[in-house]
Amino acid sequence: MAQKFLDPEILENLEIRLHKAVNQLPSPIRERIFQFICSMKGKQLRPSLIALTTKFLVDGEDYQEEAMERSYTSAVVIELLHNMTLIHDDLIDNAPVRRGNDSFHIVHGSDRALHDGDVLHAFALTLIKAADPSLDIILDYAYKVGIGNAIELEDRLTENFTFDQAHIIQIMELKTAIVFAGCVRLGCLAARREDIFTQRLEKAIISAGIAFQIQDDYLDILGNPETFGKVQYWDIQESKRNLFLYYALQTKMADRIKEIYNKPIGQKTKEEIQLILDVFRSVNDQVREVRDYYSKLAITELSAIQNELDDNDENAAALFDFLIVLVKYLVEREK
Predict the structure, then answer these.
(1) Read out DSSP for 12-31?
(2) Which of 174, 140, 171 is nearest to 154 (CA)?
(3) I need a labelling partner for 214 at 20 to 30 A (CA). Which of 118, 171, 173, 220 fits?
(4) How far apart are CA 290 and CA 111, in angstroms?
């Protein structure tokens, strides 16, 4: 992801600052976190989005260097917080693989996964000064991600199957999409271009984030496990509430699917997985239709906002060009 859209300088700066931040942790937590974040890097979409938003908006400005430093600080904090959620999510879901390698709790045990995730969460927030306006933004979005995770977990633990499509969209918005919007907002803030981040732009990026998450769910069902970086069909094993399940529950197989989904994580048989896959594939077109709806919504709104920009605001125009290309990529990616 980052390699497709970022220049080597941004990638190098992100890596240097991530290493520097992680090296502040005490041993042996430092070594465990370093291995997970720095040795097994993910797509780094979120920190990249912050840095590149700022870079577009400050091109040619005399405060460019200062703005990029602020941007990288926010980027590092967001990446650390994101990795904390991955460690905890994999522990809760008992997911065996992350980024093509054994999950954190598989390598280091459940106790360390819980503890190290908590430490990483608290440590990330110490990297932002109390007076920094980005702190309020990050805290607000971190809280919303927590709420999204809580809703999803509660659905599984209470064996809830009465949800509607709006409920699924809400979870995707809170867990994923709203963070993407926050990253663009943090990039604008670092660039002193808060005027760019309007409610319309926020809604457009949230729509893009929803499309991204639907594609993520789609890849779990139909993607190539060698490029996806996760155990294929694990969303089924962990009884994840998503659009595939929502539409599957409208079929004649609803009762059987509920019965299988109520089994503990990891205890669904190959035959049961195959049954669910067959039903999921039958509703694939409906899922893609929702994904494409949100993708089109994002692109249409981004284009409309871009057309209303000041003709002399070349930096903002370049940013919107990038965001439109990015949204298209998010729904075409294979991993």
Answers:
(1) HHHHHHHHHHHTTSPTTHHH
(2) 171
(3) 118
(4) 39
Distance CA 48, CA 141 (A): 17
Our separate counts of H helices and E strands in the chain read: 18, 2
8 A C-beta contact, residue 58 and residue 68: yes
Omega before residue 28 within 30° of 0, cis: yes
What pLDDT does residue 205 have?
A: 98
* CB distance 151 to 170 below 8 Å: yes
pLDDT of residue 131: 74
Hey, what long-range contacts does 119-126 have (CB within 8 A, 24 or more apart)?
Answer: 119/25, 119/29, 120/25, 120/33, 120/80, 120/81, 120/83, 120/84, 120/87, 121/81, 121/84, 123/24, 123/25, 123/80, 124/76, 124/77, 124/80, 124/81, 124/84, 125/77
**29 φ/ψ angles, rounded to the nearest 5 degrees:** -60, -40
Question: What are the tens digits of pLDDT across the range 13-41?
Answer: 999 999 999 999 999 999 999 999 988 77
Q: Which CATH number fits domain 2-330: 3.40.50.970, 3.30.70.890, 1.10.600.10, 3.30.300.130?
A: 1.10.600.10
Residue 266 has a pLDDT of: 81
pLDDT for residue 333: 80
264: its two tokens: 């503990």
pLDDT for the residue 261: 96
pLDDT at 2: 44
Regions of the chain short of the pLDDT cut 50:
1-2
pLDDT of amino acid 332 = 84
In angstroms, rounded to a whole number, what is the distance separating the alpha carbons of residues 48 and 272?
39
Per the CB < 8 A criterion, the answer to whether 97 and 103 are in contact is yes
